[in-house]
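Q: I have 206 residues here and want to know how they pack in 3D. Can you give me a structure?
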Amino acid sequence: MRRTKSHFAGRLEFLTEAELTMHAGRSLDVITSATIVDSQWERLVEPSTFAAASVVAELVDAFSEPDLAQPEVYALLAAVVPALAGADDARALLPRFELRLLDALGIAPALDACVRCGHAIGAEGWLDPDAGGLLCSQCHLRGDAGRLDAGDIENLRALAAPRGGPVPAAVSANPAVARAVDATVTYHLGKRARSSAFLDELAHTP
């Protein structure tokens, strides 16, 4: 990999927040100055943390490229980066982040009741991305994908709640919830985030 010759390189590291002064060029704008606002780079370089941070960056870029100026998306990104950098298990924060990102973009799944009949969810439910949220056992018609028990549903709702700021590090997902949220994000994105495959490989590396 070639080393960049730009004297701004250290101020433009991955997920570093910086204030830039730009000069409009013929085809691309040129950075004329850069000042670091916040950098977590040294704590993000651990492989599993970097992989989780890469998922965050990829999803924000894929979902909201024209809308990064949205205050909710910017605030979410500004909060999740230091949370990832300080977490013992950065991957555990992803479902919470993903649900908050979907909410900021107005496409979060409905979790209060069954999205088809409106009845309360009982001992089990299904998170169905195509339906737009939770389905009860009477309305769900297709297999076990997305199935959640009562404890999972409680965990899912806690993850989706906005309390305590955008990404409190104390909230993590049950395995079934993590899979269901990942399926929901994949549905809206149209494909699974490429960085997720690397994260999976690291999780299975001895």
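Q: Anything worth noting?
A: The longest strand covers residues 30-38. The mean pLDDT is 83.
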